[in-house]
């Protein structure tokens, strides 16, 4: 769902960038005030894990793939305010270091995947918990809804850019990401269950989750060459509706693993620095 820079035109980029900066400012304020904050190690490990898991595209249908977005996963493990910071870190590193999503589209990508997705997931989890829905089911529902809402926001943005008709974009993006959301739900529940079960074996659960998340990040990067090469949901929709050219990945397995491990290290180190900086200015 990473929007390339060439796909957005007109006022969409500056408007989404302004909304993202404003939203991030509010979120960082609440992150600074939060009483229950994860350790810097846990924050960096979970953020690195989301980066690596996003590399694992899975086939959906008709030559299309999807990958974990991670909004609900971040909310579940880090809480809402810091989940936005984590997602913003992942998306920024992807855009700056790996050209995954254009720099001029970074505001839109963070708005969709870093603010809307975790925001919707947090709201859904809160509402479902009040209704005493089983946590696993609630997490699955929140994951699915977060992906669909982020996809619809993406459809609106590419439509406002004049690339495709709004009604066609909403139907196409909504339908394909409703399927991708099922994969998101399954992966999120499995990862959270694994980390929760792993942490229960150790006295220091905070550090256990951090160790488990970092191990999952490295594992995901190592097996990334096995990911599907089919275009993701957005690329599939654009190739269908607007004859958008979809580049085919030609990198070798070794290069893919090296890029994944490098990204994990970069995200881990930057995330630790960012969360420590937030705490320095905590009131």
Distance between the termini: 36 Å
Provide the number of structural domains. Answer: 1
Strand order of the largest sheet: 1-2
Query: Count of DSSP helices?
Result: 10
Gross morphology: globular
- The CATH topology annotation reads as Arp2/3 complex 21 kDa subunit ARPC3
Q: What class do helices, strands and sheet pairing give?
A: mainly alpha
Total strands: the figure is 2
User: What top-tier CATH class fits best?
Assistant: Mainly Alpha
CATH architecture title: Orthogonal Bundle
Which blocks of ≥5 consecutive residues have pLDDT under 50? none
Concise account of the structure shown:
This protein is 72% helix and 1% strand.
Q: Would you give an account of this structure?
A:
Strands 1-2 form a two-stranded antiparallel sheet. Strand 1 and strand 2 form a beta hairpin. Helix 1 (12-33) packs across helix 4, helix 1 crosses helix 5 and helix 3 runs parallel beside helix 7. The chain contains ten helices and two strands, in the order H-H-E-E-H-H-H-H-H-H-H-H. It has a single domain, classed as Orthogonal Bundle (Arp2/3 complex 21 kDa subunit ARPC3), CATH 1.10.1760.20. By secondary structure, the protein is mostly helical. The model has no long low-confidence stretch (mean pLDDT 89).
